Amino acid sequence: MKRHLKRYIVDQSAEPVQPVAERGLDLIHNPILNKGSGFSEKERDELGLRGLVPPRVMSLENQVKRVRENYNRKTTDLEKYIFMESLHARNETLYYRFLLENLEEITPIIYTPVVGTACQQFGHIFRFARGMYFSTSERGQFRKIMNHWPEDEIDIIVVTDGSRILGLGDLGASGMGISIGKLALYVACAGIYLHKTLPVVLDVGTNNEDLISDPLYLGETHKRLSGDEYYDMVDEFVTAARDRWPLALIQWEDFTNDHAFPLLEKYRDKVLCFNDDIQGTGSVALAGILGSLRITGGKLSEQRIVFLGAGSAGIGIADMIVAGMVEEGLLVEEARRRFWFIDSRGLVTTTRGDKLADHKIPYARDDEFIPALLEVVEKVKPTILMGLSSQPGSFTKEVIQEMNKHVDRPVVFALSNPTSKSECTAEQAYAWTDGAVVFAGGSPFDPVEYNGKTYVPGQGNNMYIFPGVGLGATVCGAKKITDSMFFVAAKTLASMVPDDFLTRSTVYPSLKNIREISANIAVAVCEVAYDEGIARIERPDNLLEYVKSKMFQPVYVPYEAV
Q1: Is 182 a catalytic residue?
Q2: Do 147 and 103 belong together in one domain?
Q3: What average pLDDT does the segment 541-547 reach?
Q4: In a domain, 301, yes or no
Q5: Active-site residue, from 111, 186, 508, 556
Q6: CB within 8 Å of 136: residues ≥ 6 apart
Q7: 393 and 477 part of one domain
Q8: Which residues are 202's β-sheet partners?
Q9: Final residue of a structural domain among 209, 239, 271
Q10: Is residue 142 within 8 Å of 233, Cβ to Cβ?
Q11: What distances in angstroms separate CA 173 from CA 80, 139, 159, one per listed residue?
C-alpha cells in the first residue's frame, strides 16, 4: 500500500485540518498519522475508528505522562533505547513530543553514547524494519528497490556502510541504528518532516568475524567489498537515489577514512551531499574552539594545536580551523604549520619513512619524528589538545599537567565516542589542572564539583550543526553543500553561547535551545547559498520566519477523511 503522505502532510502550521487517505486499522498502524488514544470523537466517527481504540480521548499531554511513567520503569539504558524505538514505530508525533520536552535527557539514549551499544546488539534487539537496506546480493536492482519506499518526496537521506560506527569499528548492517538516530535528530532538532527522511545502510559485507558467526546478525555474511566493486555499488546507490529523489540531500555517515574522503571528493560537486564525520565534526569543533577563545583570550591564528588521531574527523576539524585562521590573515600553508598530528605510529611527519594516507599529507611536518604524545606536548607546548583517537585514557595526568605547565588555561577536547572511548574524563581534566582547563567531550559528561566551584563540560555534539545545515539546504533548495556553509554554521553556533555559560567553562549553548540554534544556522546556510548563487528558491523577505514556518511541530492536527 502506497501512502503518498505528501498529499496530506505539507505544513502543519498552514493547514488547520489535514485530509487523510487512510481509515481504521490502516490509520492506527501508520506511525506518522497514529494518535493512539488521542483521536477525537469526530475523527473516530469519520475515520472508522470506533471500537478500535479505548473509549476515553486522551490529550497529547496525558500521553506524554504515560510515556514518562513507562520510560522510568526501564532499568538500563539499552532497555530505554528499545522502549523509545518501539514508541518511534507506533506514534511518531508522541515520540518527538516526548523527545523535545526531555531533549538533554533522552538524546544520549537515542544517539551517542547508547546508540553504539544498540548497534552492537542490533540483531539481538531487532523488533521491526525501519529504513532501507541495499546489499551486495541485490546489485543491479537498486533503482527498482527504491520504488518500494512509499514516499515520492524525500529531503534527507542518511547513509552508512557500517564500517566505522562511532569508535566501535565495523558493525556491518547493524550500523542502521546510526542512520535512524541521525534522522531522529534531524526531525527533533531542525523540524525536518517525518515522512521526508530516509535511513539507509549499504550492506557491502563485514570483516567482523563475531558478526559473521552470529546467527542473529541481519546482514550479509561475507567479507567487505573493496576496490572498484565497492565504488561501483556506492555509485549505483547514488544514481538510483538521485533518479528517485533528485532534490534529496545525502549525508555520508561513519565510513572508514579510506572511503570517506574519496566519496566526498567524488560527489560533493555533483550531488547535494556532505560527510558529517568530516565537515560536521569540523564545524562543531571549530565552534567549541571559538567559544574557548572567549574564555582564554587570544586569536585563533595564534593557537598551537595537537591532535591525537589523524582520521576523517581530525582532518575535518583541522581544515575548518585552517579556514578560520585564513580569515584572520594567515596563508593556508602558514595555518597548517600550527598543527601537529599524531596517529597510531606517532607524529605525522615526512621523515618517518612510511607511506602516508593522502588526507594526512597536507598536515605532515618536516620535523624530526616523535613517537609519543607526551614528548610532542613537551616540545610543542600546545594551547589546544584534540582527542579523536578512540583510545580511552590516552590523555594521561602527565600529558595534561605538562600542557598546563606552559598554558594557563589549556583547552582539552576529548571527542572520541562513545564515552568508553574518551581520551580522558571531565573530572580528570579539571582535577589535573586545578580547574584551569576548558574541557569538552564528544559524549556528555555530568557537571563536576571541584574546590567549591561547579564546572559544566561542553559536548562537541554534531547535532548542534548538521540538522541546521540540512534544514537550510533543503529550505533554499541548495544545489550543493559547500565548506562555507559549515564555517558559517560554526560561527553562528559560537555566537549563541551565553556569557554566563563561559563563566562555568561551558563552550556550547544549551541543547534546550536546539530548535532556535538550528533555525539560525539554517538562515546562515541559506545566506551562503544565495551569496554563492546555488539556491533554487527565491529569497523570502523574512528568511528566519520562512525557515521556522517549514519546521515540523510535534502536535496532533485534526484529520478529515478524503
Answers
A1: yes
A2: yes
A3: 97
A4: yes
A5: 111
A6: 203, 204, 205, 220, 222, 225, 233
A7: no
A8: 134
A9: 271
A10: no
A11: 22, 16, 11
3-state helix, strand, coil in the chain (%, to 5): 50, 10, 40
**Nine-digit cell string for 540:** 523570502
- Residues whose CB is less than 8 angstroms from the CB of residue 341 and which lie 6 or more positions away in sequence, other chains included: 307, 310, 314, 318, 347, 348, 360, 363, 364
Per-residue pLDDT reduced to its tens digit, 55-71: 999 999 999 999 999 99
CB 199 within 8 A of CB 131: yes
Q: Give the pLDDT confidence score for residue 417 in this predicted structure.
A: 86
For residue 540, say if its preceding peptide bond is cis, omega within 30 degrees of 0: no
Residue 111 annotated as catalytic = yes
Distance CA 158, CA 245 (A): 13
* Helix residue ranges, H only, 191-337: 209-212, 227-244, 257-267, 281-296, 312-327, 332-336
CB hemisphere CA count around 507 (13 angstroms):
28
Let me know whether 179 and 215 are in one domain: yes
Query: Given this model, what pLDDT does residue 2 score?
Result: 39
Q: How far apart are CA 143 and CA 269, in angstroms?
A: 22
C-alpha span between 405 and 509 (Å, rounded): 29
What percent of the chain lies above the pLDDT cut of 90?
A: 94
Integer CA distances (angstroms), 161 to 8, 199, 388, in order: 33, 12, 20
Residues 457 and 353 in one domain: yes
Q: What are the φ/ψ torsions at residue 440 (nearest 5 degrees)?
A: -140, 145
Q: Which of 35, 80, 182, 550 is catalytic?
A: 182
Residue type, 422: S
Supply the pTM of this predicted model.
0.93
How many C-alpha atoms does 457 have within 13 Å on its Cβ side? 29
Cell of 222: 561475507
**pLDDT of 249-293, one tens digit each?**
999 999 999 999 999 999 999 999 999 999 999 999 999 999 999
Is there a single domain that holds both residue 247 and residue 362? Answer: no
C-alpha distances out from residue 299 to 315, 331, 493, Å = 21, 15, 18
The range of the structural domain enclosing residue 499 comes to 464-536
Contact 160, 253 (CB under 8 A): yes
